[in-house]
Write a structure and sequence with these properties.
Elements lengths: L25 H7 L20 H48 L8 H26 L1
């Protein structure tokens, strides 16, 4: 089974456009960037990238400011991290102290009931003393 050779005269289908694209000329690029009429003493034009120099300088300054701000943010982060670790250690120490140390003077629920009863009894006693003093 020999494959039939392709005919050289038969056109091949292509996906490319049939109209050729015109290459852009260098002078049109220069004119587009505003350097068409700026010829210096040596007789040649400056490259178009030179027109972006002020923007690049501003970008460099902004990037330096951004770096400085990130450095300050990093210092703040480190300070907060140290504080958080120290404060967590303090709270842990307080918690361990509460487990290890007994406070016999600390009030218990029964103490609150007795204080309430004593206050009620004191209120009754002061009321009865007032009535006796009036009569």
């Amino acid at each position: 089974m020999d494959a039939a050779p392709r005919s050289a005269s038969r056109p091949r289908p292509t996906s490319r456009p049939t109209t050729p694209l015109r290459p852009s000329s260098r002078s049109s690029i220069r004119n587009f960037h505003g350097y068409g009429s700026s010829i210096n003493a040596a007789g040649y034009e400056e490259p178009a990238i030179n027109s972006l120099e002020p923007q690049f300088a501003e970008l460099a300054d902004s990037m330096a400011d951004l770096e400085a701000n990130f450095m300050h943010l990093q210092l703040m982060h480190e300070s907060l991290s140290r504080f958080s670790e120290s404060f967590a250690s303090f709270l842990y120490g307080l918690n361990m102290n509460a487990f290890c140390v007994d406070f016999p003077e600390a009030p218990i629920p029964e103490s609150f009931k007795r204080a309430k009863e004593a206050k009620a009894n004191q209120g009754k006693n002061s009321h009865s003393l007032r009535t006796v003093a009036i009569h």
